[in-house]
């Protein structure tokens, strides 16, 4: 009887081991592009690399671009960049739900 009890206790930890490979992957937006057309301002675009992003605002008169870094901890995203006019660091936070990225009142749609 002791052998069976010992065998049962030895096998018990196997019931609680997770084998999912998804646990090791970090969330990334790498390679994604998000667009927000704005009739008054122009077209806003966010392009994500591994840890960096490029924000572009293209209007009829000019194109403005800002580079920065981001962290993504689903569903929250934090964007950090330097304001080109003041050279001060700025941080914006938003969230992603399905194919929509919201930062304040601005909503971007993921491009396919």
TrEMBL record:
Residues in the signal sequence: 1-22
Keywords on record: Signal
Top-rank taxon, per record: Bacteria
Name recorded for this polypeptide: Copper resistance protein NlpE
Organism: Alloprevotella rava
